[in-house]
Design a protein that fits this description.
globular; mainly beta; seven-stranded mixed sheet; four-stranded antiparallel sheet
């Protein structure tokens, strides 16, 4: 049984930081590209960040650039999203997803990913 679980969300004031974690069972995340997406009520799912299978390459959506950092610790089978300088517009449910596909990693496309977590709520107050 494959399970992907996000954690680390919560309530934070604008300008604060949170570190989200994505842990998996049933799969070894070192063999997958990992993406973070977010979705606010009434809005489309938005790409936040992604990291390659090896961890050598990282990718960021425009809102994340300069503020968020994605990393992975394959020994712990965990991927992290460090979020700094948070803004109220960052408020959303944040999802971790794992991509088992070979070839080009279309990391901004939700349908690219095979496994999704249930999400963790991030709320940034003003």
């Amino acid at each position: 049984q494959v399970q992907v679980v996000e954690s680390g969300g919560g309530l934070v004031q604008a300008g604060g930081s949170l570190r989200l974690s994505c842990a998996a069972s049933g799969i070894t995340l070192s063999g997958y590209g990992i993406g973070w997406f977010r979705q606010a009520p009434g809005k489309e799912r938005e790409f936040v960040a992604a990291i390659s299978w090896s961890g050598a390459s990282t990718y960021y959506g425009d809102p994340a650039k300069g503020r968020f950092t994605i990393s992975r610790d394959n020994a712990k089978n965990t991927v992290y999203l460090q979020m700094n300088s948070l803004k109220p517009e960052d408020t959303a449910i944040y999802y971790c997803a794992a991509d088992s596909l070979s070839g080009t990693f279309y990391y901004t496309i939700p349908d690219e990913y095979d496994y999704w977590g249930q999400g963790t709520q991030v709320t940034v107050s003003s």
